[in-house]
Amino acid sequence: MKTSIKLCGFKYIEDIIFATSLDINYLGMIFVKNAQRTINLDTAIESVQICKERGVKSVGVFLNQHPSEIETILNYVDLDILQLHGTENVEDYRVFEKDIIKTLHASKDLSLVGKDLDTNNLYYLLDTSTNDLHGGTGTCFDWKILKDVPVEKLFVAGGLKPDNIIDLLSNYEPKCVDVSSGIENKPGHKDHDLMSDFVEKIRTYK
Question: The whole model's pTM is what?
């Protein structure tokens, strides 16, 4: 199985142009107000167009935002996928007829992991949550929990970077790997060499 790649947390158009020139599948943009990596609306509009031209799925990341707020954004930004990163009820967001990624925070949701996940109608992303930070922490969770979940159907995030991605892939085959802080030199500022290295290591593995 070819593992998909999602690069996330983009703010700047030059980084998005470079990222979509690589062999990736998804590009994530954060629409949470006042977050470190919140994208400007005009940049997001241009970014989605670039993604469509280059065959990359655009993902909008939201955190406990009312559907009406997301609807306002979608009126301008034609995202392919919604990523719900908080405690949202997914059914409230089905009205948009978009694919949905629901985040499970590995530090809090371990009791949920062993349950049957609706992977036929929903994507799930396992990520690290530390203190009040929801993702983008640069911290790995204990990968051993992946033995108890259908990892081949999951997006996996949390502290991934060029230096450890092969350690993950040598033990597990997730549907997709998701990285943000691991390809940055500071929050929101992507390092093009790290992006290239991350993608190349995955695409040349095995």
Answer: 0.93
Instruction: Give residue for tokens 């996330």.
Output: 8
| In the chain, where the domains are located | 4-204
Tell whether the torsion through CA atoms of 171, 188, 135 and 80 is positive or negative: negative
Query: Is the distance from CB of 32 to CB of 188 less than 8 angstroms?
Result: no
* Of 93-102, 103-112, 158-167, the least confident: 103-112
Q: What is the pLDDT of residues 124-178, one digit of tens each?
A: 999 886 545 455 556 788 888 888 788 899 999 999 999 999 999 999 999 999 9
Q: Which residues pair with 183 in a beta bridge?
A: none
Structural contact between residues 128 and 158, judged by C-beta atoms closer than 8 angstroms: yes
pLDDT tens-digit readout, 29-57: 999 999 999 999 999 999 999 999 999 99
Q: Which tokens hold the place of 92?
A: 């409230």
Radius of gyration for the chain, computed over Cα atoms and rounded to the nearest angstrom: 16
Q: From the centroid of its chain, how far is CA 80?
A: 13
Are the C-beta atoms of 66 and 84 separated by less than 8 Å? no
d(Cα 151, Cα 164) in Å, to the nearest integer? 17
- With vertex at residue 176, the alpha carbon angle to CA 94 and CA 106, rounded to the nearest 5 degrees, is 75
CATH number of 4-204: 3.20.20.70
Q: Which helix (DSSP H) or strand (DSSP E) does residue 74 occupy?
A: helix 67-74
3-state SS class at 36: coil
CA distance 88 to 86: 6
